[in-house]
Amino acid sequence: MADFPKTSFYGEGQTDLRGPRGEPGQKGDQGDLGPRGPEGFPGTPGAPGTNGKNAVYRFGMFATTGILAGEILMDHVVAQACTLSPDFAGSVASCGSPPEALWTGAITLNETPVGALTITPDGVATLSTLSPDPIPLVPLDVVTLTAPEPADAAMGRVRITLTGEL
């Protein structure tokens, strides 16, 4: 088809050869899907993941005021196998109302001592383990934090979160 200049189609006083626009029609049904292409080659499998979960297991406790001598402050039943790092690395503890004297709570695993939570009169909380080795946990193990004797009336707002690697 030849490419004619635009003006060659118009008569005198005409600006457009098209007539007035009509009403829009109704939308038609969706057509069938086209043919599917061939299946691609499988890729290289990646490293095993955690299905969107953190690769850690966390559990914790808090106590407000009136902590009694020998009171069990945490008694956690482990739900998933994990390993606590030496000196509970990755775990955190804090105290909002510090004790009048050094306060050391015992951390046990199935009633066997494995570590301690120590809080100074300045309110500095420190976690420590009795061994330099990691502490493996399996489901149904019980991790317990017990307050020391005697009780310290000033002590309160103790918080701890232990973190184990899966």
Q: Any descriptors?
A:
about 170 residues; mainly beta; five-stranded antiparallel β-sheet; about 0% helix; elongated
What does this structure look like?
- The protein is mainly beta.
- The chain has a domain at 72-165.
- 0% of the residues lie in helices and 38% in strands.
- The chain has no helices and ten strands.
- The strands form two sheets. Strands 1, 3, 4, 8 and 10 form a five-stranded antiparallel β-sheet that branches.
- Strand 5 and strand 6 (112-119) form a beta hairpin.
The gross shape turns out to be elongated
Strand content: 35-45%
**Structural class of the helices, strands and pairings?**
mainly beta
Gap between N and C termini, in Å?
73 Å
Tell me the number of strands.
Answer: 10
